[in-house]
Design brief:
By secondary structure, the chain is of the alpha/beta class. It has two domains: about 200 residues, Spore Coat Polysaccharide Biosynthesis Protein SpsA, Chain A, CATH 3.90.550.10; about 60 residues, no CATH class. The protein has 14 helices and eleven strands. Strand 7 and strand 8 form a beta hairpin. The longest helix has 17 residues. The two termini are about 35 Å apart.
Length: about 350
Amino acid sequence: MTSSAASTTEAAAHSRVRPGSYCLITPCRDEGQFARRTLESVSKQTRLPALWVIVDDGSTDDTPQILAEYAERLPYVRVVKTKNRGFRHVGAGVMEAFYAGLETISREEWESFEFICKLDLDLDIPSGYFEEIIRRMNAEPRIATCSGSPYFLSKAGTLVSEECGEETSVGMIKFYRRSAWEQIGGFIRELTWDAIDCHICRLHGWYARSWDDPAIRFQHLRPMGSSQKSWWTGRIRHGKGQWYMGTAPLYMLVSGLYRMTRPPYVVGGVGMMWGYLRAMLSGTPRFPDAEVRRFIRRYQYACLLMGKKRATEWLDKQQYDVWARRNAPGRAPETQAGA
């Protein structure tokens, strides 16, 4: 396809977009304990989704019955069922289910959405969440993906932050500008898909963001990293994912030491470092794109030298021209990124 033909096709697709419209895609398995709270919180949004595709990835509890009930009540809900593989498969399995849902969306539907969101079925979201997220994205055209911040309920009954960095959107409610999602090639089907996508966004000059603001904080009913088995399993999996992503050993060591000072104390950081080391010693393959791995390590070393906030601002500034060439031709060079 010639560049002029590609531009014409892109312009035609853009003309079909309904401003502010968004689609949710939800992979789930055995979420009967939490599903109603998520379904209710989405149904009470001040800006409702145009479509919500929920993929039942082989549930064996009462999840199918709950989904059928809400599909009858909510006209934008579409339930898709996949074959039961016999177990919850985090990482690649989640992405397989996500794409199974995506494949049910027609091209006409897809091209009408301005935004898309991968949403888990174990969240309690404030009613103005999506309206506020869309407002922030409209205010800053370089934001590719963003989210609020997850909190979980402690044994003492208080809400505790999961302390996710502001330089990334969180995987359980990853909201995207559709055009940006298409530019980066979508999600990979491996562990750390929800970190690699943000690095690729930054490589292409986009912003990835999250905000710990009361208006868009949400409750994660199953704390991140707890896995389907235990905290230990989840942290080992995280370390293995960091190896796959291309994380530098020094950065992994610093991250593991830091995580030892956060719940679950000591064991969480030890599990992460062991997962990374075991993957390295066993020769586990890494993310195949060497350019992306180099970019990630460059960013990580900058974080160690400057701190994440300054390193993110610095790299976002460096990548502005990459974004402008594709998305804002003719704009003057940016002197201060992230303002």
